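Fold these two proteins, one after the other.
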Amino acid sequence: MSTVQTWGKPRLIEFPKLGNPAEGYISVSEQNTLIPFEVKRSFWTYFTPESIVRGRHAHYQTEQVLIAVTGRIIVTTEMADGTIELFRLEDPNKGVYIPPNTWHTMQYSHTAVQLVFASSIYDEADYIRSYADFQRVWG
């Protein structure tokens, strides 16, 4: 199932921050502007204990953008070539793009709420849950 395609690499996406401190802010992403794919699924995580590392998987096809709506999330990504990057999300107008074939983990502050936009609906067959399998498939 390893068809080689080029999606780019993990990177920060900055959404517009419209407003001011007196009234508050709004950030917006409209179809085909900042998110580099059509969003087919959205989900959020919250109340994750700080000692827990989530993620620990890669996808064959799914692309995602992760946003810390509140709190702090440390996202670590690893590409098939071994490139490792660390992203600290703590501004609700910034997200990190996770392309397919990218191993990723997330660690949260207890108050963190993570919003995820995904390019596909949930399909367990799209997940690579074993790090050894990730290295075998993409390495």
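Now the second one:
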Amino acid sequence: MAALKAFWNSPVGPKTTHFWGPVANFSFVVAGLVDTQKPPEMISGNMTAVMCVYSGLFMRFAWMVQPRNYLLLACHTSNESVQLYQLSRWAKAQGYWDKKETELQK
């Protein structure tokens, strides 16, 4: 019970935005996971790239902010992984990888 009370009153506990912000941001991860079931032609390369940059920047922020926010770091690390996977699906569907393989064979 003491551990629960300590978490409740901590600087990154459920009484703060340091907790609820990452919880809300996990919706990006869920949306990205749902999108993995859609055809790659529906992926926006620009938006996926922006999400990769966004998550990369906020991973650094989560690491540098005091107190260090591990929940936010986990959220953006998860989102970065999902978005990089989506970006790779988009690049493959657009034929970017096929072009490089053809150039290497010449």
